[in-house]
Amino acid sequence: MSDATQSTNAIPEISAAEGGGGSGRLHGVARWLAIVAGVIGIFLNVNQLFNFQFFVGAVMIDTSYYYLLAGLFLVTVYLIYPATPSAKNRIPWYDWLMALLTLGLTGYLAWNGENIIQEGWDIRAPTDANIIASSLPFLGEIVGSDVTIIAGAFCFLALEGVRRVGGGVLFSICFFFFLYPLFSESMPGFMWGPSSPFPQLVQQHALGTESIIGVPMRVVAGLLIGFLIFGSALVITGGGEFFMTFATALMGRSRGGPAKVAILSSGFFGSLSGSVISNVVTTGQLTIPTMKRVGYPATYAGAVEACASTGGALMPPVMGAVAFIMAEFLNVPYSTVMVAAIVPALLFYIALILQADNYAARNGLKGQPAEEIPDLLPVLKAGWHFLFSLVVLIYLLVWVGIEAHAPYYATMMLLFTSAFQRKNPFRLNKVIPLIEDSVKNIANIVGILAGIGMIVGSLSYTGVGGAFSRELLQFAGGNVYLLLFFGAITSFILGMGMTVSACYIFLAIVMGPALIGAGLDPVASHLFILYWGMLSYITPPVALAAVAASSIAGSNALSTGFLAMRMGLTNFILPFLFVLTPTLILRGDTSAIVLDVSSAIIAVWLMASAFEGWLYYVGRIEWITRAPLLVAAMCFLLPSIYADIGGAVILVAVFFFNGVLNKPNQAAA
User: Fold this and answer.
1) Is 184 buried (19+), middle (13-18) or exposed (0-12) by CB count in 10 A?
2) pLDDT value at residue 10
3) Could you tell me which of 77, 366, 440, 564 has the fewest CB atoms within 10 Å of its CB?
4) Same domain, residue pair 245 and 206
5) pLDDT for 301-329, tens place per residue?
6) Please, which residues have CB within 8 angstroms of residue 223's CB and are 6 or more apart in sequence?
7) What is d(CA 394, CA 526) in angstroms, rounded to the nearest whole number?
């Protein structure tokens, strides 16, 4: 179908998890209930992380804490996200019932958190009705004497939450894995695992520590909430507008300036939001029309925005939820993941900017009119506090190492400095919008990760995750390149149907151990999985980022997707490079890092020149010159000094045969 006529209002329907949806239901009592539930959840998070000991002189045990957080934010999921499109502007009675049931169930589980762990309820849940009645008498009358019924109800609520937030595809995947232990004993080969009867199945998912309140929920409770609040604070205080204006002041005057503004602003915004589609919708509404106005075709404008928004989720310092989950899986500080992602992300954005510049040079495009370009100094003077808060955040993450506390300190610094600004100062009337935006973002991620936890749980309980890794290693026969090829294809296919977090979590369990077992660097292996899972956003037939951008640009979605795929080719190659050459993720000897990063930058420049048909100091080039440039780029990408020398020889030959070396005055930059 053609997406040229799609309205931007339809974009959120691509995925509720990415584009939002249903927030129009938040008004009146529902709005205040969501705010109160969210405030209590945030308060619990602060109390737990900072050890304020507000509850009976001690920090509550982790299990109880996870249940309370899951319950409080699942309540907001049922208030924000409708069960059906017909309820997008109202809250039916069954949503109120599910919200109250969620509070009751999670309150009961939190109250018995210590008993659940010490007595192993996930293996053998108690059947004494007095246990229920002594905690919540009214609930005991409803569900009877079996805790299994409570566990089953909690599983249902978590699955319904992921359906509303993540959409039908993600729900189907989570539901399949939720039921998988029922029939795993009948599966062939490495898919075989010990099966569980249904009562034990729901006990494991709801009462165990490997499923709903497993790794994903631990990441939310331990790290992610603070960063989501920091992102909301940036939005409420005008950070999104500042980064757009800042990018315009830096790049707007240059040829093809609007495309470069789109790349920079989407990189800034995407790093903080971590959401590809919301990045396209938010920044693309401004950047795509501006790009078209200075001469970029609609398809090219959409492709630029799609690529830039996709890369934003891979850009430090925040990188979205998945980077924190990665740190948890690897058992390393988040700063380790953040530092490793710096060079690949920068190479990707350098490639985009060079392509946009070369296209503008080849087609004679200009920058924005001078009257639309703000002066850089006034922009920095008005928005220095945004950059300062980011510097504070990075300093606390990398040098101080207080990852859980860092976003809260950075948020307080941002709000304090913002209060003294003349333009858009932070005042008390913005407190409620800040809380509301934070609660929506947290509810969004909790709704997804509670369901995704069931995937982790089923793979863990059946042992299929480990079996898959062993089979994959054996099938590859020790061939690392074959193993990486399988990993790339698997990651890409799963990325079509899952959110980034779901795709990564699944592959971190089944693919990560295989790559690490083959002797590859653990951080590089997990980044490899993440990058290839992200590529489905810009690769047909799915290409959700390209579809969203094309609906704004008024271009054909398929054409936009293929162009975005070509522009983002760097991201197809980089994962193989840094997993085989960890120097590109800043791991190894300093001299080797400098050499390999420099070679990669040259390679990116040559690929951009070949793709767009423009070479600095030569000018317009055709395929007779483009082909050798691509060969030279491949040489510079190979981890060998001899390959670099070969690439340099080809590049010199290209310049010589184009008359640059014997005509030094010829320059077309």
Assistant:
1) buried
2) 33
3) 366
4) no
5) 999 999 998 888 788 887 877 888 899 88
6) 324, 327, 328, 334, 403, 404
7) 22
Q: Residue 55 has what pLDDT?
A: 55
3-class DSSP state for residue 620?
strand
Last residue of a domain, one of 368, 398, 433: 433
**Is the residue at 323 inside a domain?**
yes
Q: How far is CA 632 from the centre of its chain?
A: 33
CA distances from 360 to 259, 561, 627 (A): 9, 20, 21
What does the block give as tokens for 76? 């907001």
Asked if the structure places residue 452 within a domain, the reply is: no
Residue 397: strand pairing partners: none
Q: What's phi and psi for 614, nearest 5 deg?
A: -145, 125
Tell me, what amino acid is at 596? D
Q: Is 310 strand, coil or helix?
A: helix
For residues 609 and 655, is the Cβ–Cβ distance under 8 A? Answer: no
Question: What is the distance between the alpha carbons of residues 566 and 569, in angstroms, rounded to a whole number?
Answer: 5
How many domains would you assign to the chain?
3
Instruction: Residue 306: name the closest of 273, 338, 259 by CA.
Output: 259
Closest alpha carbon to 212 in 220, 513, 48? 220
CA distance 577 to 483: 14
- For 448-469, what is each residue's pLDDT tens digit? 889 889 988 998 888 887 777 7
My answer on whether 208 and 296 are in the same domain is no
Q: What are phi and psi of 627, to 5 degrees?
A: -60, -50
Q: Within its chain, how far is the Cα of 649 from the centroid?
A: 40
Same structural domain, 347 and 387: yes
Phi then psi for residue 374, to 5 deg, are -75, 155
Determine the pLDDT at residue 274.
65
Out of 216, 233, 265, pick the residue that ends a domain. 216
Q: What single-letter amino acid sits at 375?
A: D
Q: What is the dihedral of CA 128, 182, 74, 408, to 10 degrees?
A: 100
Residue 6: strand, helix, or coil: coil
Same domain, residue pair 33 and 142: yes
Q: What is the residue range of 388's domain?
A: 224-433
Can you give the pLDDT at residue 407?
92
3-state secondary structure of 615: strand
The verdict on whether omega for the bond into residue 317 sits within 30 degrees of 0, i.e. cis, is yes
Alpha carbon distance 496, 70 (integer Å): 27
pLDDT of the residue at 586: 92
Whether 642 maps to a domain, the answer reads yes
Query: For residue 35, is it within any domain?
Result: yes
Q: What is the pLDDT of residue 23?
A: 57
How many Å apart are CA 229 and CA 206, to the nearest integer?
A: 27
Residues 169, 175, 176, CA angle at the centre, nearest 5°?
95
Q: Does residue 260 share a domain with residue 362?
A: yes
**Of 586, 541, 582, 588, whose CA–CA distance to 561 is shortest?**
541
Question: What stretches in the chain show pLDDT beneath 70?
Answer: 1-24, 53-60, 127-146, 273-274, 497, 660-669
CA distance 299 to 125: 58
Length, in residues, of the chain: 669
Q: What is the pLDDT of residue 133?
A: 47
- Say if residue 254 is in the same domain as residue 173: no
**Residues 43-94 pLDDT 10s:** 999 988 888 766 544 456 788 999 999 999 999 999 999 998 888 888 999 9
Verify that 276 and 295 share a domain, yes or no: yes
247 plus 166 within the same structural domain? no
